[in-house]
From TrEMBL:
The keyword Signal applies. Residues 1-19 form the signal peptide. The keyword Isomerase does not apply. InterPro entries: ConA-like_dom_sf. This is GH16 domain-containing protein. Keywords: Membrane, Signal, Transmembrane, Transmembrane helix. The lineage of its organism: Eukaryota, Fungi, Dikarya, Ascomycota, Pezizomycotina.
Length: 369
């Protein structure tokens, strides 16, 4: 009896492990492989899913008010619910800094927590997302209200980052999805809302030299493969490898760049802003632009402590340290369900094995009964 129940528990645990969704880093995958011409292996994975957050008490039904001229210090409270939870706050920090105009800009910028929110999307049909995340920039007469969420995993050192997003709103805003350490260690996907809707900018900083002139090759204006336009939902991907940055949109390679590939650990940063500079352009007073995100998937390697380099005291969720050979490789591309990596080697063996495991469980249960 003891033996049988032990066996039963053992097989049951195997079946559960097989059926378990591979959402979390480190459970059933030792490492991850990406596809495409910049295919690489990575030890860690994070998946941030904003698609189906329970809308308790209808907290996401209304868009938080635009930040107005009387609220110019970034002190507004953030949205209740998910963005106010430790689950979110362990990984992301909503920014509240502001910036006075510089010689090349016209407008002051002020980040506010009130400009980042989860929205209810359940009334929109044919979408599997009942919610998504939005970052907003809104133009006041005297300043731009802007939004930024900074990743707290600051030791990311080479990565494949995928963001499922769309952009809408008036010309004059910059939508940034990028890796960041400082102004010379930064790799960007940027959407300028003054551009045509089939253009994105891909850059490795610095794009401007100390002499104030644009550095050739640092920033590229990329035409998206037809019919992709940034007003629709697309998967934006940045592969950051040693010596190579590759950008993909909806799995099509749009650019390789060897200039300025970051060489130091960084974090993922996402922002939406406008400052009246030549880069952003001007938004008209009282208008807004938005970045909507359903999910972010990132496979990556690390270097140094989670709080990154230079050191900052922000040690929170550490990933389990990886060592030893990668026996179980998982693919994050061409998966049946977004966010669920699949074993990339010998899938038939896995299927047969898990099937036989369930037969054994059934047999054991019958014998026991
Ligand atoms: C981009 O770089 C990869 C890796 O070096 C290479 O295989 C691929 O051919 C390059 N693609 C283009 C369009 O340059
Ligand atoms: C990530 O780290 C693993 C283990 O050290 C290594 O095999 C892999 O090549 C690294 N990936 C990149 C892109 O450097
Ligand atoms: C914020 O401003 C934009 C642009 O004027 C407007 O469309 C939107 O409805 C405003 N949001 C709220 C919550 O009032
Ligand atoms: C939640 O919001 C309150 C203010 O309303 C704030 O004091 C608290 O730090 C927030 N918690 C998290 C985890 O963001
Ligand atoms: C919704 O999910 C189903 C099942 O995973 C998938 O077949 C379908 O394409 C998804 N629809 C959208 C709009 O993403
Ligand atoms: C970025 O950080 C690195 C490492 O500290 C440093 O060498 C570099 O000068 C910094 N660049 C800027 C623009 O601050
Ligand atoms: C881009 O990819 C997304 C997600 O797979 C898909 O919903 C969308 O239709 C694609 N866009 C185009 C123009 O193919
Ligand atoms: C933004 O508007 C101001 C005032 O109208 C103007 O001085 C500035 O040149 C504009 N900036 C751009 C990039 O058009
Ligand atoms: C990887 O990409 C190649 C060519 O782009 C494709 O033939 C192959 O099916 C892809 N494999 C996976 C696992 O995504």
């Amino acid at each position: 009896m003891v033996q049988f129940s032990g066996l039963l528990a053992f097989y049951a645990s195997l079946c559960i492990a097989n059926a378990d969704i591979l959402q979390e880093n480190s459970k059933d995958c030792d490492c991850y492989v990406t596809n495409g011409s910049s295919s690489a292996y990575f030890l860690y994975r994070r998946f941030f899913d904003f698609r189906n957050i329970p809308n308790s008490n209808g907290v996401y039904n209304l868009e938080p008010p635009n930040v107005t001229s009387s609220q110019d210090a970034g002190g507004e409270l953030g949205q209740k619910g998910y963005l106010n939870s430790t689950v979110f706050a362990d990984d992301w920090e909503l920014q509240t800094w502001g910036r006075t105009p510089r010689p090349t800009t016209l407008l002051r910028m002020q980040n506010s927590k009130q400009s980042i929110y989860i929205q209810d999307n359940s009334k929109e049909d044919n979408s599997n997302a009942t919610t998504f995340l939005t970052l907003r920039t809104y133009r006041n007469q005297q300043f731009s209200s802007t939004a930024e969420m900074l990743g707290l995993q600051r030791n990311v050192f080479h990565a494949s980052i995928r963001i499922y997003a769309r952009v809408h709103g008036v010309p004059g805003a910059v939508i940034g999805m990028f890796t960041y350490l400082n102004d010379s260690t930064e790799s960007d996907i940027e959407i300028l809302t003054r551009d045509q809707i089939n253009h994105v900018r891909c850059s490795n900083q610095a794009t401007i030299g100390p002499d104030g002139y644009t550095i050739p090759g640092a920033s590229s204006d990329v035409t998206l493969p037809s019919p992709v336009v940034w007003t629709n939902w697309n998967i934006y991907c940045l592969d950051w490898l040693p010596g190579l940055s590759s950008w993909y949109v909806n799995e099509s390679l749009v650019l390789n760049k060897t200039y300025g590939v970051p060489k130091l650990p960084s974090c993922l940063d996402i922002n939406v802003w406008s400052d009246g500079s030549d880069w952003s352009g001007n938004m008209s007073v009282g208008s807004a632009a938005y970045l909507d995100i359903q999910w972010i998937e990132m496979v990556f390697n690390t270097s140094g402590p989670r709080h990154g380099y230079p050191t900052e005291n922000n040690e929170k969720r550490n990933l389990e340290r990886r060592s030893g050979p990668c026996k179980r490789v998982c693919s994050v591309d061409d998966v049946e369900r977004i966010g669920i990596p699949v074993r990339s080697e010998a899938p038939t063996t896995v299927v047969v094995w898990s099937f036989s495991c369930c037969i054994w469980l059934l047999a054991a249960a019958i014998i026991w009964a």
